[in-house]
Design brief:
The chain is of the alpha+beta class. It is built from 9 helices and 5 strands, in the order αβααββααααββαα. The longest helix has 20 residues. The relative contact order is 0.08.
Length: about 190
Amino acid sequence: MMQSKEAAIEAILFTAGESLSLNKIAKAIEEEPSVTKQMLKDMIARYDEEDRGIHIIELEKSYQMCTKQEYYDCLVRLAMQPRQAILTDVMLETLSIIAYKQPITKIEMEKIRGVKCDHAVNKLVEYNLVQELGRLDAPGRPILFGTTEEFLRNFGVHSKKDLPSISPVQLEDFKAEIEEEMQVNIEV
């Protein structure tokens, strides 16, 4: 029973990512604060004995799970490695709209998609697949977006001119298909 409560404490501290008061931890595992404090002390000692990469520290009646300082260099090297971009269906859909219709504003993208696309556009900019091309000469001066050279490299396209053109009929078919999918998702 105590072992499962210690596992619960470990999960709580790991998930929190910040210090938690003794009372919060005790309440979460449904245990008395004095018993919880002893469990934390035992866990702190065991982590130190077993020479793990993490430890639990006490900060004025609060506890936090942290990485041991001697492993900071490893974490820095990990953080310096380039992250692989993972494109969700929403991001791919938004990217295809940008690729076909560039330069395009978020409002135009949202008209096509039928939903907000701020997050998808921001992620695509972060992944360097989309960039700001300037501003539309219209009220509010909305930002125009287009694809980057990185997009061309990743998708094996030599030039934006090599992208297939989409006919207005196909575009209307895509819109109808998206609206149909949205209706199915709403009904589910």
